[in-house]
Here is the input.
Amino acid sequence: MFLYQTFYNFRNLKNDTIDLSSREVYFVGENGQGKSNLLESLYYSAYGTSFRTHNESQIIKNGEKAFSVNSMFKKSDDDMQKITLVFENGKKRIDKNGKRIQDRKELINTIPCILFCHDDMKFAIGEPECRRFFIDQSLTLYDNLYIDDIRNYKKILKSRNLILKNHQYDLLETFDSQLAYYGLIIQEKRKKAIFQFNEIFGKIFYEVTGIEGVKIVYEPSWKEIITEKLTADNKIITEKNFPASQDIINLLLSRQELDKRFETSMSGPHRDKINFIKDKVLFVPTASTGQRRLLSLILRIAQSIYYTRVTGLKPVLLMDDVLLELDPDKRAKINSLLPEYEQLFCTFLPGEPYERYMKDTTKVYNIKGGEWFERSN
Here is the structure.
């Protein structure tokens, strides 16, 4: 649970400390007043990066040269985590309990946050890389080794593509074996994650929309090997297994001319496809805008449940105006299906009926011009 945050030149927020020590905290205000900035600061403390920009100089308050945000997060009665992030002179520093962090992956498992925002629509209607990102993000929430796997694969892929572009073909053999090694690890972990996601996602989607049979289908770029086995009672069963590393090396060799022609790697996990299927047909192209919005929302709910099932821990939920476009019935259903959480932060416009979602302990802040004013219940 976040206990408090202290800001210095973070966006338009006033340089002060905000008390966050409630299980539910609502930020209410007109657009442009600082509601999303508060959620951004929470996400920034959890992951050391913003969900709104890759250019951190944009976060600095106008006219200033640096910013910082300090957070106190209570994991348990005897486990308090103090996170300090400072950005100045174009460089970022992250301290965890007074100790400098050299790699952001050391921070990721400290404060598990799940963000719900409008940009999540890209998981439904965006390019394939958006859905790959979502599954990879779900895995990196708890698996530090997967962070290394993804980094290593991307590094090798970049080198292999450079070799193809420069026509240094004699070096391909070395990079093919490494690409196969890390690529197969990624594919296997993605397949397992999507299998577990399907146990959660389809049921919730049906409960909210009444549409049955929508599932997530994983199509790895390196196809699985299909084998048939004869059982003791003479029945034939079909099995799908990932190819071995040598199989992939042979595949890359057989496709080398294609890679050379396009001067890039035409196969691998960077070209995996993840689709939403109903009755063996792509679901999204025929879905309504409302169904697509619900799909992206339910993906986040499934992500939260998945995280808890894998780790036994409850995440912090950050919900940025995501209920605004839903009709009252769908809002009620989504709220009733929210997963167990450690803490919940929501933003609302003043006219929204947020009171009906409140609990006795909910803390409500009115936000105006980067300042916050606690509302008494």
About this structure: The longest strand covers residues 66-76. Residues 163 and 169 are 7 Å apart (CA to CA). Residues 172-209 form the longest helix (38 residues). The radius of gyration is 23 Å.
